[in-house]
What does this fold into?
Amino acid sequence: MNDTFTVVGGGPAGSAAAVALAMAGARPLIYEQSPFPRHKVCGEFFTPEILPALDRLGMAAEFLERRPAPIAHAELHFSRRSRRFRLPQPGFGLSRWAFDEMLLGAAFRRGAQLRRERISQPGPRAIWAAGRLAKQPRGQRLFGFKTHFAGPAGDAVELYFFPGGYCGICPIEDGRINVCGLATEPLLRTHRFGIESLMAAHQRLAARLAPLEPRGPWQLTGPLRFGPTAGVPPDCYAAGDAACFVDPFTGSGLLAAVQTGVWAAEALLSATPVEGHQRRCERFQQRQLGATTILRGLLDAGWAEPLAAFLPGAWVFGWTRPG
It folds into this structure.
């Protein structure tokens, strides 16, 4: 095989697709206008399933060589209660800078080419991994924020819930800590979109961040919308957030990016109808979308905190895993 296939987007989904295409003997052509690697608003937590997904691309060992932080526990923090439990299998923490560099570099080594330009109509039989399109009315939008810190890390991914949003804390490589979260537009407006002010308004979160030292400015992205993504050109195979955006507190967004990128490459090579690929991606993330919808309803109703006190941790973790 010596065919050239277009991949729009050089992030984890697009790069994973390009690696899979190259391994099959194709010539991937990646369109990516943004500089890489780069820091992006992302939780930077990897569920245990990431290793088998990367192993299919021959990259599991390279991932471990980046020395991701091992994560053995999860912590849930509410206004009055906290819950800590051991994960059924250890997860990992690795920055998007390191992960994106690793995947895109692997695509280049296998023969992919890169064009630093924007393309909106790649034509049929292309992979679309160019993020998400989310239009929401002003006043009802949802935004993500992130920065890195240095300081006491531990071995847990920590989630702090508060009315109108939540914040996750995850150790990553080189002793750094990723702090990332989501907040509604009304909540952010009360703090004039100042993330430091938002963090200081919540006692448990402020106490956790107090001994940490910032290692960069806060990043803000949005608007965000959960569920299948609109705006994918016709006859293109969607991957990553371009296929579906799931609430990040499940911690499986990066796994989904790699997996759907590989599936998009397989579908393209086998000429599987785009609709068949879409259904496969939807089945993969259907349970997560349902679980996060229920969990958000419990949070809004005030039931999540008392329920978290007695639900088995392994069950909570498993409930949010992809199908």
Q: What stands out?
A: The radius of gyration is 19 Å. The chain is about 35% helix and 25% strand. The chain has one domain: 4-135+223-319. Residues 274-301 form the longest helix (28 residues).
